[in-house]
Structures are given as C-alpha cells and as structure tokens.
Amino acid sequence: MALSALQPASVWRHFSNLCHIPRASGQEKAVRDTLAAWARARGLAAKTDAAGNLVLSKPASRGYENRPSVVLQGHLDMVCQKNSGSAHDFARDPIRPVLRDGWVTAGDTTLGADNGIGVALALAALEDEELAHPALEALLTVDEESGMHGALGLEADAVRGRLLLNLDTEEWGELYIGCAGSVDVIADTALPVEPPPEGARAFTVRLSGLAGGHSGIDIHRGRGNAIVLLARLLRTLAAKGADFRLAALDGGTAHNALPREAAATVLLGGGAASIPRALAHLQAHADEFVTGLRGELPGEDGKVRIDIAPAPPAAVLRHDAARAVLSLLHDLPYGVRAMSEQMPGVVDTSNNIGELRLDGGRLHINAMARSLRAVGLRALSEELAALFSRAGLDVRTQGDGPEWTPAPDSRLLALARNVYRETFGGEAKIQVIHAGLECGVFSALWPDMEMISFGPTIHGAHAPGERVEAASVERAWRLLVGILAGIGDRI
Description:
Aminopeptidase; Alpha-Beta Plaits; 2 domains; 6-stranded mixed β-sheet; 30% helix
C-alpha cells in the first residue's frame, strides 16, 4: 500500500514483489526462479548459468534491430541487517517498506533497495511494450554482497551486448565510471584458554547505538566502528588496572558493513565481596567512555551506549593471549588510509574491520581493504596480513574484487551526459565510487565493453533504516528510458 501511489508504477510494483521474496546472499534461488518464470510467461528468454546468475533477454523494438544491444545489470541479493531485539527472520519474513516524507524505508531492517531498485528498473524496461530500445539483456547476478561470487563465475559468452548500464549506485545525479577494488584479509586461529577462575562472575559488556552503514560509501564519514571502540574500551580498562578476564567477543555481521554493535564477555574475580566493587568500577569507566565518545563521534552516532549484564560463565583466554588480541585490535588500521589525488573528495584507500568472533578460544577477524589502485590495495592487504601473522594468527585472503578503471572518453558516457542535460537541465557529476561494483569484474572479463553506472539516491545501505528517495527513482527511470532510446548505430 505504501508504494502503490508512487511513479513509475511498474518499477515500484516490481520492487514491492521483490520485498516479499527472501534474497540473502547465497540464498537467491527463490527470487531467481520467480523472475525466470515471470519472464517466460511474457515470452522472454531466461537462462541460468552454473554460478546461479540469471539472464533475461528481450528483442529490439521496431526500428532498433541494428543498434548495439544493451545489458541492464543489477544483483539479486541484499544485505540482511536488523536492529537488536527485532524478531524479523530474513529467511521467511517479507520486508515491509513504508513511505515517510518522500523516502521509502523499512525501519528496523535493511530495505533491500540496494540493489532491488536496480533490478526493478531492469524488469520494468523488459516489461514495457512502448519503450524504444535495442535488444536488451538483464544480467541479474547472485552473491554480490558477500564477495561478487556470481559475477566472478560468469563465462565470457554469458551476454552478447557490449554496452552495459549498471544500476547499482546510490547518488542520483552522478554517473559512475570507476570503482575501488577490494580484498578480505581473514584471521582464524585457536587461542589458549583456561577454566573460569573460581568464584568469578561473568558479564556481557555490549556497545550499541551506532549508525553503521556501507563500508565503502560511508567510510569517510567518521562513524564509529563498534569492534574498534569496544577493543579500545577493554584496553583502557586493562591499562587502568581493572581486574577482568576475557572470555568472548562478538561484533559485526557483514564484511562490507560498518559494525553497529559489539559485545565482550568478561569475568570479574576476587570473591563475592569484591565483585560488586569491580562491577561498579567497570560501570563507571564504561559511563566515562561513552561520555567521551559522544563528544568524539558524529551526531548520527549520538545514541551510542554501553550496557553491562550478567552472563553464563565461560572459559577465559590465557592472560598473554588476551593482551595480544586487544593489542592487535588496537593496532589494526581502520577507516580512511588515503584520499584520491585524481578525484577530489573521493576516498582512495580504506579498511573496515567488519567481523569479530571469539568463542571457546577460536578467534575470527575479517578486515576488508578497498582501494582505487591495485598497488594501494596490495600494500594495505599485505600490511593487514603482516599484523595478523605477527600476532601468531593464521591468515588468508579471499574475494579479490578488481577495480574498474575509468574511461572518460566513452561514447556511452557521452550519450548519458547528453540525455541527462536534455532531460533534467544542468550537468551530471562524473564520479568514481569507493566501493565495489561488479563493473570491475566485467571490465576484466569484457575489456571492450563500454559501461556506466547510475541509480537513485539511497541512504544507509547495509544498515537498518536504509531508505531510497522516491522522486529519484522516477528520475533514474527517465534517464534509463532516454539512454535506451538514444542509442544509435554507433551509439
């Protein structure tokens, strides 16, 4: 009901349908099968490749048969994040979008506008019988959010088109022609543990209330990382003589999202008489720490808090191992490493510590490095790996996403700029994004393919409260329609 009055109606109808189908990364079968059946019912070709990607094809409209064919590209999966206390089950429950002040949002969960709106734009183009267009292929990839595994599994003959419109960027008015490469550096090691000290009591120290966000698009905003801040608190407590033992750590749920929450299980010892004093000492330092954070972090992180609650007893890390873990988390680089010299205001190189688990002595850390330059990505990933190795941890890398090198002289870009100018007045901003786009994979697979990326304005992607500006969706549709109609024999 919230979306039924919005325009263009076909785009919002397709997005509403997507909101009813679970589509977490790696679990796209239901949505893929639904869209394939939808296409075949309309006489469109549908094929699925070995990696699980879906390609839907539509012949050119009358008069466009000899014009270069176009690939409309988006990804089927979404980042599944929810606020603590939410009962939403992403494997079963539909996303429930609401319209507020011109924005469509989902409240306590991610909305899936990234990249559900892009998929909906492509489906609406395939459905529209009045649209003037060359032959179209909708390339809908899987598992983009967890490492672009669908795109990396594409074969060279997956599509015929050599013009590609990626519909997966999040600032209306910008045409993207390049993106950062990325790599995950992962430590996974068993550490020595000891039985809980006799008479000790366990407590959970939970840091929450941060805004979170996308680890590429939002990394420059100075938002807090719950893992980094919790480690800082624990190190500060240890330096001030707090008597605690570390049993567990848990923070972040996705490598490409800024962690909003993190928790540590600590044991306070000294017997029944001294535990209340130790707990009061811990609470006082936590309160002081939060007060400092509220003056340090941006306003959107103003709800940061620390809660301390009883927890079940558990085995604890040996003293030297606990010190090593906290020192490592303190030393790991986080945030912006360098800004781009070629693109003012754009982050060149950064790192996000996205996931942390310590349970039963098993430690897992996932750090995601990004850079617009291959040399910058290699240098940062090697630095992270060296820090992990120096701490005695087993380390590996995965998810090597290549950068997309800008082609400012592209004829497709020139067409898009002209359509934007004639349709909306003014000039589109030509941009490079400090995030991973599948265009990086495509440019390596199809080096002769011309491509650009655009989309509506989406705020808070990868975090609960994600929202998309409704008016910008309509503008993105008009730009897409204009580009397709404007493609000539030589673009």
